[in-house]
Design a protein that fits this description.
mainly alpha
Length: 83
């Protein structure tokens, strides 16, 4: 049984960040994601492994919900400041 690499439970309690999560999903999607199975705008596995290594020191670590929420809040603040 495969474990999920991202704990999205924190995001479930933050509907104000759902649009930002969709923006982030498409911003980090593989190139030409629509041309390869599973035909979803998912980030490249190598990118996620690199991010987990830089944040947690382990490319197999699970991304914590609180960290995901903090990242999305940062993205939203940055987007508002620069627009």
């Amino acid at each position: 049984m495969a474990t999920r690499s991202i704990d999205s439970r924190g995001l479930g309690r933050r509907p104000d960040l759902w649009w930002e999560a969709l923006r982030a999903l498409f911003a980090h999607a593989r190139l030409r994601w629509w041309a390869r199975p599973p035909f979803l705008p998912l980030p490249d596995r190598r990118y996620l492994a690199w991010r987990r290594e830089t944040v947690y020191g382990d490319p197999q670590a699970r991304i914590e919900g609180a960290d995901l929420v903090a990242y999305l809040e940062w993205r939203r603040r940055l987007r508002r400041v620069t627009s």
